[in-house]
Design brief:
heterodimer; A: alpha/beta; Rossmann fold; 3 domains; six-stranded mixed sheet; 18 helices; 24 strands; globular; B: 332 residues; mainly alpha; 2 strands
């Protein structure tokens, strides 16, 4: 009986041929990763490449089907996040795991507070230990400050301090800078460099290419759940990284179809503002076009859609449909006017998961199409759901199947079917392919093109630029709650969109 | 294809929910059989079975409304005292104001709808949690029942003016079969049709399954939630009519405690407090189970104070078994 030995004991963290699949999707397929001692390893991959699955496997939230993890030469099998932390592996997620109304010190020692007689808390000792920790990290934080009063950057530092309080050997950071400004990013990088010693290491997940150059030693690229390559940062070019990342030759020949400039305006939005974010948003939507909405997270694209369909109140603004001014107070009125909204968060805002596919398709139309004097016309409803399901090729044994058993792509199709049955003229798709695998994505694209071809007007909100470039006849770009520009299909490039998406009001003011 | 067939129990969530109903029914039969063995001469008699059905009527009516509300992931704590207030209102209409019985009944049912409308408005327009909103209206109803009746029972003239009112409960259209039982069957049938055959039932489960998604699907959830609470209020008023018709009087002090029995009947019948799934037939069985237990324990002379203890234990067992099965369903 010999204890299992890692392939290379000198490595700090090793992921060896790990597999994991979910119904319909192979999330990880022979995943590998090697973290050396004393290095910062960049991990890059598109959305859905398998990064979050890998992290959930590492922390024991999911169980792997095959393969092995090694930490510091020992097999790593943890039961949960806390267990992982105690073994020296901490993960800092994009959404921070702090309790907002507790103090910095309380958050750091949550669940393992210094105790007297095993029961009574010792706040003094806790504060002192926190101060010690923060001093060691040269972090300018008050142990007794409430976490909710801190900026996101400071909160992130609390998370890192917490990780270090566990004596972490490995920290995995999932897009730590997505909410930080440049100064804060620099602070974070300083902190990371201070953390990395010959016995520790960091896995740094990011979408921001320039940061890879700044902070990492090597870069591992993964794609579609598979390991692609690891390259030295010093010798790597960003182009090389991106081409590895995108891999399957992005079909650059696939471009928007049926782009025309003589279409009639079907909806005009002007001066749209909300109490929270939006300022004077305006755009026109033409019949039969796919209008892309691009921008960074928090630019206000979803908020615009929700305000239009009346899901959120607007403080000012006008909506004209076919030249007629309309006021929309709720999604029921929007639907009656022929505007359907498909949320970015299907499970929360889209589906009745515990009800049938048929229910999910028919729910919007049952009152006006499938009932008489309030009584449902079951046969008509079943037939319509069945037809729509066949038309969109929804893969389900029957429309009586519960929605929760469908794959992401088929769930999305069921919601599209809902609005097709309702006969909406305007469809607002918020991240229509989020969480959908590659094959189903292409199907959704073709479906959107077909709908536009049939004269429906489509707004497509997307954070994936290739998707915008592939689909949109025109692109509305938003930044910080404003529309910063509208590009035609011929003007839209990754660069031109990103420039508008990062156009900051403050910068513009300075320029003026 | 089995599409149409499976549609018939779309609300029931397929065979699993069927199983739940069968289990509830089996439970009812087992409990019934157990009492029959313990008290063979007094329990399974014609008279006693009629008694059991009789006492299931009021809880059954309330539980129909409770089911519709609970399926939305809401709760209606006001149905017990609302029932007492409705009974007082019925008496006010017929005894104090001498309105004809038929008109009194219609006005009482309308009054119940108003009660439910208030609950629904508190929940949707003011955005109060259903538990708090109906806790408040529960106390308001209790108080108003005392205020309107001046803290005294109001007696119907059961031999003269209000004979037809009492007939509603104790009369026999079908010989040997009190009308109250027919009323319970009718109430169940109405609730069943509403829940399974109309868009109100469709929106009911949809709201309970995912309120946000239902709203974004273009359903006016405020309007429909208010409607559902209003319908529940009508069932509350029907409960008030049935209890006062049976007693021949409106008792303003009663009512409190009935809401818990109604909720218990609903839960025993397989309706989830989390919303999104429910069963009217299950609720009827639940009401009968409660009635059988109450009656059986009386028959075997278990002191009144112990009856609630037993009922509480039964609820724990039934709901625990249900959860156990659901958990297995999830992991398998």
């Amino acid at each position: 009986m010999t204890a299992p030995t890692p392939p290379d004991p000198s490595l700090l963290l090793q992921v060896e041929d790990v597999h994991k699949s979910f119904p319909g999707v192979k999330a990880l397929d022979g995943m590998r990763l090697d973290l050396r001692r004393g290095e910062v390893l960049g991990l890059v991959g598109e959305n859905g490449a398998g990064k979050s699955t890998l992290m959930k496997l590492l922390t024991g939230i999911y169980t792997r089907e095959a393969g092995q993890f090694w930490l510091d030469g020992q097999p790593l099998d943890v039961k949960g996040v806390r267990d992982a932390e105690q073994r020296g592996l901490s993960i800092i997620h994009q959404e921070l795991n702090l309790v907002p109304h507790l103090t910095v010190a309380q958050n750091i020692w949550l669940g393992r507070e210094p105790l007297a007689a095993g029961f009574f808390t010792k706040p003094g000792r806790q504060t002192a230990r926190t101060r010690e920790l923060l001093d060691r990290l040269e972090l300018d934080l008050d142990p007794n400050a409430l976490v909710r009063d801190l900026t996101v950057a400071k909160q992130q530092m609390v998370e890192i301090a917490k990780a270090l309080s566990f004596d972490a050997k490995v920290i995995i950071m999932d897009e730590p800078t997505s909410a930080l400004n440049d100064t804060e990013v620099a602070q974070l990088h300083t902190l990371i460099r201070r953390f990395v010693t010959p016995r520790t290491g960091v896995v740094y997940i990011t979408h921001r290419m320039p940061e890879l150059k700044q902070i990492t030693d090597r870069i591992t690229i993964i794609r579609d759940g598979q390991y692609i390559d690891t390259i030295d940062t010093a010798s790597a070019t960003l182009d090389e990284v991106i081409s590895h990342m995108v891999g399957r030759a992005i079909d650059t020949s696939a471009r928007p179809v049926n782009v025309r400039h003589d279409r009639e305006v079907i909806m005009r939005v002007s001066g749209l503002s909300t109490p929270g974010l939006l300022r004077d948003v305006g755009f026109e939507l033409h019949r039969g076009e796919v209008l892309g909405f691009a921008g960074l997270l928090g630019a206000g694209r979803t908020e615009t859609a929700r305000a239009i369909v009346g899901a959120d109140p607007m403080s000012a603004g006008e909506i004209e449909l076919k030249g007629r001014k309309v006021v929309i107070h709720n999604a029921a009125q929007a639907a009656a006017l022929g505007i359907g909204y498909l949320s970015e968060d299907r499970k929360k805002y889209g589906l009745m998961l515990n009800l049938s596919v048929e229910h999910n398709i028919a729910i919007s139309s049952v009152a006006d199409k499938f009932s008489q004097f309030g009584f449902e016309r079951r046969r008509a409803m079943a037939a319509a759901a069945q037809d729509a399901s066949e038309l969109l090729r929804i893969k389900t044994p029957s429309v009586a199947q519960l929605a929760k058993y469908l794959s992401g792509g088929n769930q999305q199709k069921a919601i599209i079917a809902r609005w097709l049955v309702k006969d909406c003229d305007i469809l607002i798709f918020d991240e229509p392919t989020r969480g959908i695998d590659v094959g189903a994505k292409e199907e959704i694209y073709q479906l959107l093109n077909r709908l536009a071809g049939e004269g429906k007007s489509i707004i497509m909100i997307s954070s994936e630029l290739p998707e915008i470039l592939r689909m949109a006849h025109r692109v509305v770009v938003m930044c910080e709650g404003r529309v910063t520009g509208t590009l035609g299909a011929d003007e839209a490039t990754q660069e031109s969109i990103m420039e508008l998406a990062t156009w900051r009001v403050s910068e513009q003011r300075e320029a003026a | 294809m089995s599409t149409l067939e499976s549609l018939d129990h779309k609300k029931a969530g397929g065979w699993k929910q069927r199983l739940q109903q069968l289990l509830a029914l089996a439970g009812l039969l087992v409990i019934f059989a157990a009492f029959s063995v313990v008290a063979p001469t007094t329990f399974p008699t014609y008279n006693n079975i009629t008694n059991i059905l009789f006492s299931a009527v009021v809880v059954g009516c309330l539980a129909m409304g409770a089911t519709l509300v609970i399926v939305t992931a809401g709760i209606d704590l006001s149905c017990g005292t609302g029932m007492a207030l409705s009974a007082v209102m019925a008496a006010t209409f017929m005894v104090t104001l001498h309105l004809p019985v038929w008109l009194g009944i219609i006005l009482t049912l309308m009054f119940g709808a108003v009660l439910g409308f208030v609950n629904g408005t508190l929940v949707t327009v003011l955005g109060l949690p259903p538990f708090i909103a109906t806790l408040a209206t529960m106390m308001i109803c209790q108080g108003l029942a005392l205020v309107v009746s001046n803290v005294h029972p109001i007696y119907f003239d059961s031999t003269g003016e209000h004979a037809s009112y009492q007939w509603l409960s104790t009369g026999t259209i079908i010989p040997g079969f009190p009308n109250a039982i027919i009323m319970l069957v009718l109430a169940t049938a109405v609730a069943f049709v509403l829940f399974n055959k109309t868009i109100l039932g469709r929106y009911d489960v949809s709201i309970g399954s995912n309120l946000e998604a239902t709203a974004l699907s273009g359903v006016n959830v405020r309007k429909w939630l208010i409607a559902i609470y209003a319908v529940a209020g009508v069932f509350t008023a029907l409960g008030g009519i049935m209890i006062s018709a049976r007693l021949g009087s409106a008792q303003p002090q009663t009512g409190s405690g009935y809401e818990m029995q109604a909720i218990a009947a609903t839960v025993i019948g397989g309706t989830s407090l989390a919303g999104g799934k429910g069963s009217i037939i299950g609720t009827l069985i639940g009401a009968l189970i409660i009635s059988v237990i109450n009656n059986g324990l009386q028959i075997i002379m278990l002191p009144q104070q112990w009856q609630n203890v037993v009922l509480g234990v039964v609820i724990v067992i039934v709901v625990f078994i249900d959860q156990l099965r659901n958990r297995q369903g999830r992991t398998s």
